Amino acid sequence: MTFHRQFLLALLAAAAVAVPPAALAAADDGPVYGPELQGFDYPAPVQQFAFTSQGEAMHMAYMDIKPEHANGRTAVLLHGKNFCAATWGDTIKVLSTAGYRVIAPDQIGFCKSSKPAHYQYSFQQLARNTHALLESIGIRLATVIGHSTGGMLAMRYALMYPEQTEQLALVNPIGLEDWKALGVPSLSVDQWYARELATNADKIRSYEQATYYVGTWRPEYEPWVQMLAGINRGPGKQQVAWNSALIYDMIFTQPVVYELGALKTPTLLLIGDKDTTAIAKDAAPPEVRTKVGNYPVLAQRTLKALPNARLVEFPELGHAPQMQDPVAFHKALLDGLAALPANR
């Protein structure tokens, strides 16, 4: 047995997580990417914003797409936990064609950005990083569009920088309920780390099929499975898994639901009603699992809580409506942003 497998099995045993040998073998199949997603192509040139945070030099990858016929507005796209800036490819094209300058960053800890050995992750910190990036390229006002965990970040950004946030669009954001308060058990960072070390393409695909695409599957979804699986197969596997564990802990412990009433920015909610996302609900008792991640209920509750919002629901779509039905989603996005007032 190699040292790596011994190390992995010891970690899993310490966290009381059982993983069959077949799952470990599956993790070695398919493409392999570096710890900053080296080898995986993005839909536009990737630039790097170098800065210092918490005493450490790091860099934040981003795409900056300037339109042929500018409308004078900027859209910032914030990815989710199991996503990267590259997964916004279709949305980038639609917004750019509509005249927006589009900025799509990879947050610290994700994809092509730095994965620090030690970092105090918070949505406030990620919002500060994003704001610093935008300032560095001369953007003072933006429409901020966030999906999933990126929706949590978008809301935090608007709470911290209301004068710089023209509009918000939130695509199946999480953080709209407090899972711990509802009975989902808190996992330690070590437990999250063991889970992330044990991930593989089959597990990722199964989860995405059930949650993102409502049990359906198409070939164009597979690159996003391999994007995640490939970075977890690569030489930076432990580094990637450790940052992912810290990020999961951040998501679980920092719900935004209690601050929705303070969010004054004009907001568009775009919700796939078949979504059932709730972090760590698989560790919860059955009676808890059934009451969390109910997006039709969360959508209506959030609409009532936000002072200045409108809601568009997709009754048959899941957690990633922008990928499951891009035509319907992008029409709703453009129409919705046009109908919203702008915070100028």
Give structural attributes.
344 residues; Rossmann fold; eight-stranded mixed β-sheet; 13 helices; 15% strand; disordered N terminus
Task: Write a concise synopsis of the structure shown.
This protein is an alpha/beta fold. It has 13 helices and eight strands.
Q: Would you write up a description of this structure?
A:
Residues 1-25 form the signal peptide. Residues 76-326 form the AB hydrolase-1 domain. It holds the Pfam family Abhydrolase_1. Helix 1 packs across helix 6, helix 6 (189-197) crosses helix 9 and helix 7 runs antiparallel to helix 8. By secondary structure, the protein is of the alpha/beta class. It has helices spanning 3-14, 21-26, 89-97, 123-136, 149-160, 189-197, 201-211, 222-233, 237-253, 286-289, 295-305, 321-324, 326-339; strands at residues 47-53, 56-65, 74-78, 101-105, 142-147, 165-171, 267-272, 309-314. 39% of the residues lie in helices and 15% in strands. It has an eight-stranded mixed beta sheet, sandwiched between helices. Strand 3 (74-78), helix 3 (89-97) and strand 4 form a beta-alpha-beta unit. It has one domain: 3-Layer(aba) Sandwich (Rossmann fold). It is built from 13 helices and eight strands.
What's the topology here?
Layout (H helix, E strand, L loop, with lengths): L2 H12 L6 H6 L20 E7 L2 E10 L8 E5 L10 H9 L3 E5 L17 H14 L5 E6 L1 H12 L4 E7 L17 H9 L3 H11 L10 H12 L3 H17 L13 E6 L13 H4 L5 H11 L3 E6 L6 H4 L1 H14 L5
Parallel strand pairs: 3-4, 3-5, 5-6, 6-7, 7-8
Antiparallel strand pairs: 1-2, 2-4
Helix pairs in contact: 1-6, 4-5, 6-9, 7-8
